Amino acid sequence: MSFSVEINIERAFETPAATDKVFDLLADVPRSASHFPKVDRLIDLGSNTFCWEMEKIGIGSYTLQQTIYACCYSVEAASRKIAWSSVAGVGNAKVEGEWVLRQKEAGTAIVLKTKGEVMVDFPSFLQIIISPLVVMEFTSLIDHYLANLQKSFTAS
């Protein structure tokens, strides 16, 4: 029997990049997603909705888990906010969140809030062992993603 793992992440950071540059990159979902590690495929479902298929996790030729989910994105240029909500019935995870940007005198303040729920296809008695590993992996992916974005924000 499977179990779910909840993940909540909030990160705030600043970049010397102009707010328009940051907003343009983050609002372009495929371009932003290209900075996210371990994405196997990003599928455009239309209407600013995308299905994320992450790389399979496995041992040898055996696949243990592949995380798949879909999100619908909304972009508010005036408020510099990009939000995404989970699309029901797609994959084994639900992910939602938002980017909030604030122009500063010397760049942009950025806040990322995201939360997710991943269905893990392992026996429930392993939940106490596997749940922290899933949270740690997702957190690591987010931190790597933010580092990749920061490099792009500051590149000429």
UniProtKB/TrEMBL annotation:
Q: Which domain of life is it from?
A: Bacteria
Name under which the protein is recorded: Cyclase/dehydrase
User: What is the organism of origin for this protein?
Assistant: Chlorobium ferrooxidans DSM 13031
